[in-house]
Specification:
This protein is α/β, with parallel strands linked by helices and 187 residues long. The protein has seven helices and six strands. Strands 3-2-1-4-5-6 form a six-stranded parallel sheet.
Length: 187
């Protein structure tokens, strides 16, 4: 069953397979023993999916904050954002491991989504007014648990058919996010 959309006031996104094409990385594909240092060496090969820069500019123009919630390490994401010149795009960055003062240790993604809504840029925004974009089916139920609206991203997913069967809203390309939000805001 498709989610009922309220007015969309914020966007959160997964990192791997949603914002960046990390499947070109042999470590992400599981072809080599996983090693974060080796993964970080492959950052130049992991490009931002086409269309995201336009989405970022549009969200900024509408004062709609965007954040990252991921199970990747904060260092890896930060280094990737720096390499691609995207340091100032995201209002928050929360990861499963080592985020500093709010919590420590391993944290579930639904808790990360809830924590993201406590960031300054998200103050006053209810969970039901937030889209969470991911390429993974498991993130759809996690997003619902957090009270946010799950959006299945088909462009980076290895689970396209499963996402379509999940009943969540799906998008074929990042730029479709703009129209989805425009329809909700009547602009």
């Amino acid at each position: 069953m498709k989610e009922e959309l309220k007015t969309i006031k914020a966007v959160l996104a997964d990192f791997d397979g949603t914002l960046f094409n990390t499947w070109v990385n042999p470590y992400a594909r599981g072809e080599k023993k996983f090693d974060w240092k080796e993964v970080e060496k492959n950052i130049p090969n992991c490009a931002l999916y086409e269309g995201w820069k336009g989405v970022f500019a549009w969200l900024k123009s509408k004062q709609i904050p965007i954040g990252i919630v991921s199970h990747c390490t904060k260092g890896y994401i930060s280094k990737t954002l720096k390499y691609w010149g995207l340091n100032d795009v995201f209002s928050c960055l929360l990861t499963r491991y080592g985020n500093g003062t709010r919590y420590s240790g391993k944290v579930s993604k639904d808790k990360l989504i809830s924590l993201a809504l406590q960031a300054d840029a998200f103050k006053g925004i209810e969970a039901g007014e937030v889209l969470y974009l991911s390429d993974q089916v498991k993130d759809m139920s996690i997003t619902r648990k957090a009270g946010a609206i799950p959006i299945g991203c088909l462009w980076g997913s290895k689970e396209k058919q499963e996402l379509e069967k999940e009943g969540c809203i799906t998008l074929d390309a990042p730029l479709e996010l703009i129209q989805l939000i425009k329809n909700q805001l009547n602009i």
